[in-house]
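agent> Task received from the user: take the single chain below, predict its 3D structure, and emit structure tokens. No templates, no multimer pairing.
agent> Plan: (1) validate residues, (2) run structure prediction, (3) serialize to tokens, (4) report one or two observations.
agent> Step 1 OK, no nonstandard residues flagged.
tool_call: predict_structure(input=
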Amino acid sequence: MIKDIIARRYAKALFSITKNDKETEAVKNELETLSNLIETNREIKNFIFNPMFGKEDKEKILTGALQKIGGADITKSFIRLLLKKDRIKYLKEVVESLSSLIIEKQNKKKAMITTIAKLPDASLSKIKGRLSDITKKDIELEERVDDSIIGGVIIQVGSLVYNGSIKAQLENVKNRLLLKG
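)
tool_result: status=success, residues=181
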């Protein structure tokens, strides 16, 4: 998607100007806090994404919020840049991309596992170990529960997705039947 490409570029730029891993992590945490604030507070979200309000007003609100959490100057400057370039709408994706860059630098790989119910720790450990063997990297496993998959499992490692869900299998059967019919 275009927003992921844009977010990745901004994340790479931010990643390249931070001085060290500690600063990069701190900036990511500050941006994540700000992104969560925007996502969870309807009034702030409506204000930030409403074109009727000027960029200066939005900047005051966001830098004020950063000031309260002790945000670094680099974070404030980055927020100003996103506002100036009208890219604040990609803040969540920028944070995700920055997170991925941090993980990559640490020779880790992020993986997402989606199941219908929470898996036991032993199963998660086995899956994590197997993914680590395959990728030759340490795996940072994130678990998600989604009952819409009906059953089975979906594992995503980077851009590679293994979809072993019942929902996907039913879709495949449906598509094959429609092609034959």
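agent> Step 4: summary for the user.
Residues 108-180 form one domain.
agent> Done.
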